[in-house]
Amino acid sequence: MLYSARGRRASGHIHHRIPLLFVLFLVVSPLSLSAQEIIDNLEVLKISAADKAAVIRMPASGLRLIKPGDTLSKGCTVKFIYPEKIIMENISGDVPERIIIRITDKGQTIERVRPVPHTGNNNIQRSVPMDGGP
Predict the structure, then answer these.
(1) In angstroms, how far is CA 78 from the centroid of its own chain?
(2) Average pLDDT value for the chain
């Protein structure tokens, strides 16, 4: 039982507020934003290649420490962290894509790589190494 500072039994009104607060958290949580919105609006603040971790600023949730395997939103997962780039995989859309966020002296750039269908007319295919290498 809960008791107030005066020794009286606390009312149960707080129990009715907990589900509402939980629902409110889910509505404004980063998982409710689309992967596209999160990727387009995130800012990489620091990369630690030695720790294979990065600090990013995400819309609606502020600062976050990420490591390979972390999920940023439904279907968007951090795959690799290198000194100058972060590689993510987004499978939330109709076509899976690899997202490469590169950090340069001029800022950050976002590159989206989607698989190129094989047409059978030529032998040229674009490939992205699965290990995320350069």
Answers:
(1) 7
(2) 74
Tokens standing for 8?
Answer: 């009286």
Rounded Cα–Cα distance for residues 24 and 33 (Å): 14
Judged by phi (left if over 0) then psi (alpha if -120 to 50, else beta), residue 6 lies in alpha
Supply the pTM of this predicted model.
0.62
pLDDT of residue 84: 94
Rounded CA separation 129/21 (Å): 44
Contact status, residue 49 vs residue 82, Cβ threshold 8 Å: yes
Question: Distance (Å, rounded) from C-alpha 128 to C-alpha 98?
Answer: 9
Name the pairing type of β-strands 71-73 and 43-48: unpaired
- The secondary structure element, H or E, covering residue 24 is helix 13-28
Cα separation, 124 vs 127, whole angstroms: 10
Count how many Cα atoms sit within 13 Å of the Cα of residue 122 in the half-sphere of its side chain. Answer: 5
